[in-house]
Every structure is written in C-alpha cells, then in structure tokens.
Amino acid sequence: REMARREAERMPDFDLGQGVYSLGKELLKYAQLVRISRPIPSPSSSLGSKFTAALSGLFLHRPSYFLYDGTVKGVVTRDSWSDPPSDFGNADYNDHHYHYGYILAAAALMRPYLPLGRSGVGGGGGGYA
C-alpha cells in the first residue's frame, strides 16, 4: 500500500494535451494506485485534488476538449476533428470504448476521493462519497 501511495504521489501532473487515449490510460493507472494505497484520504488531499484538476481541465475547460458531431450524433475530441489521424482515429469513432472507457473507469475508482456537487467536477455543494 505504501509503495502504491508513493508511486501515485510521484506521478507528474496530467498533460491534457497528450490525447484522450494516453490521458485516459494515465488517469486509470493513477486511480488504481490511489485505490490500492488505502485508506481513503479526504477529497481535499493531494491525491484527490490532482485527479479533480485533471477532470476539470478535461470536461470544464473552454474551448471544450470534446465536440459533438451532429451528423453522426457522437462525441469526438477537438484535436481529432481538425486532424483526423490524431487521437488514434477518435473522429472516425475508432476504439471509443477504450478512449473513453479508461476515463470512465478511472472516475469510478476515484469517486470516493471526489467532492459531490452540481457546479462541475469537484464543485462542492454537497458532502463526500
């Protein structure tokens, strides 16, 4: 447990410019390390706040990291929309179950560390899970 906590603390801040696939894999690795390192720290701890900052940047940043494709009625990354080969073909709907699955799995694992709220990721206004 102690090794997992130290490894999670040593991980650098998440680079939101690296693409959704690589970012998702990093977020999931981090979330797994944090969960292994129990006990659950408070959401304001450095382990919880680092993850919250990454999710906030990913989902609340303007311009949005994601775009809605009205033709196909799906979500793609802004980078892949302007440069289709980027993000491993995200705009071609290639492997979305991986691209977004890593992020969703990481968020599920980190849920106990994140504040509840309605004003965005970690937006307060509620208790803690």
Give the SSE map.
Blueprint: H1 2-10, H2 20-36, H3 46-60, E1 66-69, E2 74-77, H4 78-82, H5 96-110, E3 115-117, E4 125-128
Antiparallel strand pairs: 1-2, 3-4
Helix pairs in contact: 1-2, 2-5
pLDDT < 50 runs, ≥5 residues: 121-129
Strand content: 5-15%
Largest sheet, in brief, is:
2 strands, antiparallel
Average residue-wise pLDDT = 79
Helix content: 40-55%
State Rg.
Answer: 15 Å
> How are the strands of the largest sheet arranged?
1-2
Tally of strands: 4
Which word captures the global form? elongated
Features:
129 residues; mainly alpha; two-stranded antiparallel ribbon; 5 helices; disordered C terminus
Concise account of the structure shown:
With 129 residues, the chain is mainly alpha-helical. Helix content is 47%, strand content 12%.
Notes on the structure:
By secondary structure, the protein is mainly alpha-helical. 47% of the residues lie in helices and 12% in strands. The chain contains five helices and four strands. α1 (2-10) packs antiparallel against α2 and α2 packs parallel to α5 (96-110). The longest helix is centred in the N-terminal third of the chain and has 17 residues, at 20-36. Residues 121-129 have low confidence and may be disordered.
